[in-house]
Amino acid sequence: MIRVLLAEDQAMVRGALAALLGMEADIEVAGVAADGEEAWRELQRLQPDLLVTDIEMPGLGGLDLAARIARHELPVKVVIVTTFARAGFLRRALDAGVRGYLLKDAPPERLAEALRTVHRGGRAIDPELALEAWTEADPLNERERQVLRLAGEGLSSTRIAERLGLSHGTVRNYLSEAIGKLGAANRVEAHRIARQRGLL
């Protein structure tokens, strides 16, 4: 029996996924969570085989949750089920140790099969998205991504420099590089473009 924890902030989607998986003879929905922090607590309490989670949830998102699981070396495997059909999100998910990445508009039977594949130690990635991620380069390096993410939170260059232990001039250079690479007019637009492409 494959024991699954579902983490999804939309109640209707959460209920539909639970009902769908409940029809499978070899899959048990051990628990559900409405946000990332609740999922984290339930993971430790229930110790399921798999976590099925969305990317964006209140507080702790699915990618941050996956990264926390990897840092703490929990034995649970993570499968993302999301509407975000963007190569940037897939790359970040794989970097966080995610084993499966499916889109919510995929055929229902694909989810159960993906969970079985991941449970056996394999990967289950939406094939079209995998091809896009393979062919589309990520223009930002990790430092540019950090600086742009903080700029998007409204921090000034001085505050970003303090937060990251960098000089003010270095932060301005990173922001300038990110703006140029994304073809943006300013840091606000660069942050918006990067978010849309799943790069942050």
Automatic annotation (TrEMBL):
What Pfam families does this protein map onto?
Answer: GerE, Response_reg
CDD domains cross-referenced by the UniProt entry:
LuxR_C_like (cd06170), REC_DesR-like (cd19930)
Q: Does the keyword Phosphoprotein apply?
A: yes
Where is the HTH luxR-type domain positioned along the sequence? 133-198
Q: For the Response regulatory domain, which residue ranges apply?
A: 3-119
Q: What GO annotations for molecular function exist for this entry?
A: DNA binding
Record keywords, A-Z: DNA-binding, Phosphoprotein
4-aspartylphosphate modified-residue sites: D54
GO biological-process terms attached to the record: phosphorelay signal transduction system; regulation of DNA-templated transcription
> What is the protein's given name?
Two component transcriptional regulator, LuxR family
Q: Which organism is it from?
A: Pseudoxanthomonas suwonensis (strain 11-1)
The root-end lineage is: Bacteria, Pseudomonadati, Pseudomonadota, Gammaproteobacteria, Lysobacterales
